[in-house]
Amino acid sequence: MPEYYVIPNQDEVKRLIKEYGMKKEEINKDVVTVKNWMLVQPHLPKFPESKNDELSFWIEGYLRLTKNNLEKTKSGVESYFRLKTLFPQVYDVNDLLNYVESDLYEYLTMVMLPKHTPDGLKIMYFSFKDSNTRFFRAIEIYKRMRLMLDIYQRKGIDFTGIHVLIDTRHLTLSHISQFDLFQLKNLIKLAQKAYPLRLKHTHILFPPSFIDVAKNILKPFVSKKMFARLSFHKNLETLWEHIPRDVLPNEYGGYSGNLDVVREEWKTLILKNNDWFLSNVSYKSDESKRLKNKKSFYSEKFSFKTLILD
Predict the structure, then answer these.
(1) Are 254 and 246 in contact (CB under 8 A)?
(2) What would you report as the CA-atom Rg of the chain, rounded to the nearest whole angstrom?
């Protein structure tokens, strides 16, 4: 089976480097700067020499995600390790082999589609298997998203923006009632720094009749800008106005292969990275060692309204 997800896509990496005016010598210098900064942060983990090259490549990915912004890269690195400490359930990798074959995994389809849009964006797609919420856990959405994004961080970042595509044909009020809004606010606040992607647009496919109820529940927590980038599609034709058909899977009138194949490839890729996930599970922040006199962005009030939007 061919792997669409052998990352990075070199053409897209070159496009980003050129767009941001990044030069290899400067990248190497910035990577060293971030690594030296990490060493003097008492609450951040210390890595063995054997992980030196891996850590350098990981930091380079942050530089691309942040459009070569050194301070935002430091902020992202710090947020990442704190996220692992505060939300260990999202980073649980005890048994990925059984996990990807479980009913919990099968119930939720969440994948990055293989192709980029013409302007270099990726498509994050998800949907539910059916309307029965027996195997639905809100935490699974966050866990699956982090598995994908961490794999990209390991393999190489070749995009900085995404379209989110949600097929809501099986969405029910029972799904929505299971979200802990307080937890969600905290998680999103930290995650948008730990994974500094630009959310370009969210597309809701086949919205249910109660979608206005869901919007009213979320509205106090979502910025006006985010709502402006939310589209509802009762048919595929309006979706194609935003996303080219050659990027979409066959099931949505596209020409980019079958969605089941994409699902299987992501399962394979998660398993192939199993040892890597296990080798990094213990690297997290020690909040008891955080400098007390340092003003931190973590003291800010959590809010959806700081989501990065371009």
Answers:
(1) yes
(2) 19
pLDDT single digits (tens) 193-204: 999 988 899 999
Structure tokens given for 29: 């210098």
Q: Which 3-state string (H, E, C) describes 39-100?
A: HCCCCCCCCCHHHHHHHHHHHHHHHHHCCCCHHHHHHHHHHHHHHHHHCHHHHCCCCHHHHC
Q: How far apart are CA 273 and CA 154, in angstroms?
A: 9
* Residue 48 to residue 129: CA distance in whole angstroms: 42
Which of 1, 75, 90, 95 is closest to 34 using CA atoms? 75
SS3 123: strand
SS3 203: strand
Query: How far apart are alpha carbons 153 and 159 in whole angstroms?
Result: 11
Q: Give yes or no for a cis peptide into 118 (omega within 30° of 0).
A: no
CA distances, 299 to each of 77, 186, 295 (Å): 17, 11, 8
Edge-to-edge strand list for the sheet holding 230-233: 108-112, 122-128, 161-167, 198-205, 230-233
Residues of the chain with pLDDT > 70, as a percent, come to 90
- What per-residue confidence (pLDDT) applies to 41? 96
Q: What pTM value is reported for the model? A: 0.87
The closest alpha carbon to 33, from 9, 62, 6, 12, belongs to 62
- Which residues contact residue 200 at a Cβ distance below 8 angstroms, ignoring those fewer than 6 apart? 121, 161, 162, 163, 229, 309, 310
- Mean per-residue pLDDT, 59-66: 93
Give CA separation, 156 vs 18, 86, 101, 243, 270, in Å: 16, 26, 27, 24, 15
Burial of 230 (0-12, 13-18, 19+ CB in 10 A): middle
